[in-house]
Amino acid sequence: MNIRVGHGYDVHRWGAENKPLMLGGVEVPHDDGLLAHSDGDVVLHAISDAVLGALGLGDIGRHFPDTDAQFAGADSAGLLSHIMQLASERTFSVGNIDVTIVAQQPKMAPHIEAMRQRIASLLSVANDAVNVKATTTEKLGFVGRNEGIACHAVVLMVASS
């Protein structure tokens, strides 16, 4: 069986007032949004980087540079859909994915299941192939100081026979 593992990591800082907080393709109620060229969805960005990494295709910035105006305000779900098309063209699909959101706030627990379902839909996998969890940094570092949110994603990609 031809399998590949990829890891993705993304960070965005707080400070985009009047911008919705998008995490895992889900709008999470919060007073502040994340600064980014796109919609700032750190979860979908980390997943995108994990898939691209497993395929040996670089990172999200290589495919959707923040210097390109056409990606300003881009929907990260659309970017991930394009990346999944690249995977399909190479006969790879997601086996499973594990995501860790690192944020001091807001509380993620009420939104985890919706994120899980949205991510499963975007990746064309069963819900039980997607795990989403969250942690704080116990008020340490930039996350602990509420300066931003980070996310790690690990994906197992499987090639069709």
UniProtKB/TrEMBL annotation:
Cofactor binding note of this UniProt entry: Binds 1 divalent metal cation per subunit.
UniProt-recorded name of the protein: 2-C-methyl-D-erythritol 2,4-cyclodiphosphate synthase
Residues holding a divalent metal cation: D10, H12, H45
Record-stated family: Belongs to the IspF family.
Enzyme class: lyase
NCBIfam families documented for this protein: ispF (TIGR00151)
BP term (GO), one: isopentenyl diphosphate biosynthetic process, methylerythritol 4-phosphate pathway
Pfam family, one: YgbB
Gene name for this UniProt entry: ispF
Listed cofactors: a divalent metal cation
Function: Involved in the biosynthesis of isopentenyl diphosphate (IPP) and dimethylallyl diphosphate (DMAPP), two major building blocks of isoprenoid compounds. Catalyzes the conversion of 4-diphosphocytidyl-2-C-methyl-D-erythritol 2-phosphate (CDP-ME2P) to 2-C-methyl-D-erythritol 2,4-cyclodiphosphate (ME-CPP) with a corresponding release of cytidine 5-monophosphate (CMP).
Organism listed in the record: Idiomarina fontislapidosi
Secretion signal, residue range per the UniProt entry: none
Binding positions (4-CDP-2-C-methyl-D-erythritol 2-phosphate): 10-12, 37-38, 59-61, 64-68, 103-109, 135-138, 142, 145
Catalytic activity annotation: 4-CDP-2-C-methyl-D-erythritol 2-phosphate = 2-C-methyl-D-erythritol 2,4-cyclic diphosphate + CMP
PROSITE patterns: ISPF
Matching InterPro entries: MECDP_synthase, MECDP_synthase_CS, MECDP_synthase_sf
